[in-house]
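REQUEST ID: PR-0412
SUBMITTED BY: lab tech R.K.
PRIORITY: routine
TASK: structure prediction, single protein chain
INPUT:
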Amino acid sequence: MIQHLFTVIFTTMAISGFFTLPATFAEEVPDEVTAIALRNWPPHYRTDPKTGEPAGFAIDVMNRISRMSGIRIRYVTYANWPDAFAALENGKAVLVPNLGITDERLRLYDFTLPYETFRISIFIRDSTVDIQEQGDIYGRKVAVVRKNQGHVLMEEKGGSDLRIYNSVGEAFMALLSGNVEALVYPEQLITEIAIRSGLEDQIRIVGKPLQEVKRAMAVRKGHPELFGKLDNAVRQFVETPEYKTMYEKWFGRPEPFWNGFRVAAVMGVVMVLAITGILAWRYVSILRLNRSLTEAEKRFRGIVENSNAGYFFVDTKGRFRNVNQAWLKMHGYDSSDEVIGQHFTLTQVEADLVTTGQNVEKLLAGISIPTGEASRRCKDGSVGYHTFSAQPVVIQGKVAGLEGFIIDTNERRRFEAQTRLAQKTKSLGRMAGAIAHHYNNLMAIMMGNLELALEDLPGDSVMIRELEEAMFAARRASRLSTLMLAYLGQTAALRESMDLSRACREFLPELRAGMPKHLTLETDLPEPGPIIRANAGEIRQILENLVINAREAMGEQPGVISLSVGNVLPADIPFTNRRPVDFQPGMSGYACLEVKDTGCGIEKDALENLFDPFYSTRLTGRGLGLPVVLGTLRAYGGCITVESAWGRGSTFRIFLPLTTEKIPVPEAVAEPETMVPEERTTVLLVDDEASIREMGAKMLKRMGKTVLEAGDGFEAVDVFQKHRKDICCVLCDLTMPRMDGWETLEALRRIEPAVPVILVSGYDQALVMKGARSELPQAFLSKPYQLSDLKNALEKALSLPGN
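STATUS: complete
OUTPUT:
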């Protein structure tokens, strides 16, 4: 009976245990997990030179945890942390074997039990005596590594002259060479580098650690089953002796003073004194020195070769004796064999030869020089730019040469040049807008009086032809002002959603009609095409300008002009030869309009000025076609790129933002009824220029209106208060002293809320009406205007309901 009872109990427990396995093992874990590895971040991550596989402290721990948890790991190697974090965000990896724990990262990752603690400490050279605590580095040159926690801490504290390096090797060398006075970095990593380089007696730590950072395995959020297995395995592993052995393997331990070398040296000295005297002692000393130099050279070579900064060593005769891969890459060389033994002038720009020669002479004389910026001549003859630091190399009291580092600044200089160009473009835009305004004021007076003179002349007058020619020229001049405003991106045309392919297809007959017989126009216009928000007339003008450019580039030679439309992603928009220079693609897609020709192409120097107003490579060109295209694209939030080379044709690509709006269906619009009482025929004309008031008054009187004039806003308010019952409309200039057009409009509306107002300006309507306003005019009239324009504006202002 008892035996039967035990059998039932054990059976029940077994069944219960079988069906209540821990959730960690009940959940499905992938057969293979992708983990991040860094190419060169010792001692945690590095690449094994023999196998090419990831190695290091973090990799050893990860491999041991992999075996304990039964999870197979596949490593993906990246050159730096930003690329690694991007891979995690994009789902290319889910696991980091070793990562510092911060508040920001806790929101993104699940961290196992920490198995390592970093101490962020301050390192100085052992010979430094005036830095003993944290406060002593205030105002000093302090080295940090970009994006490292030491960098973050020092920026938060402030007060120090931070020198930011891209790698720990560069920062460590800067401390040893005296370019900086202190280095802030995780203590274990610097100690490991110093021990492996045999330089642990050259540096020391001062003060207390600035911060302690715990490090652990990081799993991207959303993988609880994987995290549970890894965390359980880490908790078991850190308690084993194997973990301690693994830690000491990679981080090492400082050797005691009485190590094997020092004991052997002392014994050797005693034996030399007892047996052979000073000659044997000298031999042993030289042997030890050579061995130490050889080992130190091997260790430093590894650090230098993996540095992102270019390293060089020049002997006393000015010849290169050593350069690293970064230096070769900056100068465009494939192998050091092309450089070693060559004189340093091989890489010097002629204009800098004298200065560089003087610096080399100082260094070879044992005199230090300050860091600076210089140019370099590359293998292909191009010129690059970099910052440099150099110092003499002294061996046994004699200068053996000079060495130093260079850091490329081409990208920074390119960015600065683009910033200057953007500022120049903005300044030119403001100037051109102001010129257009004053120009339009003068044209308004000229065209208005010409129109009045033409109306006053009898039909058979001999003066009519001359005045019509003058009016025609004035209209062309006014058109020039309009093109300038289009270049500035200050267009005011009505925009609506449209099919770009259809818009191009509708304009094809006109393009083909103007195409010479020796040229062929090929098209690729998919249906339906990309949907954009634009003005059909402006799209037609863009297309016409680009096709005319292509046609003229072909000359009299037979060739092909290709027109195509498609969709592109923001990342596919080229950066080279892109305008506006400050354009930054958005998150959504873009429509691409491409015009390609097989003509003569564009020279490299001309590409820089191609979109400048009035710049043209042809004697017959006005130089406004491409600037107008650029201005329209600037208003649309788009851009244009050019791909061309002399003798190889050109490709212009227009990129316009896509829209999700549907193409509107035209609706019939009823004509508004005139609401102003017929007995009101007085117009208040406000302008600070008497000649414009005089011309405007003549036009209004021709239309049968009574005119009251005011020289500025204050006078307009006074006149309006006296004659408000007679005034049907106010014609007000925008730019006036004391009280401008907007202020005058608000003042009049406070007196009579329903008074119709027409705002007049030489500036473009888009610029004038930009921004939120408490009061708006019924109509806008652009200078210069003609009698018909004024009549239409009055009809619009007086026909709105409520007027």
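NOTES: Confidence is low (pLDDT under 50) at residues 1-27, 254-259, 668-677.
REVIEWED BY: pending
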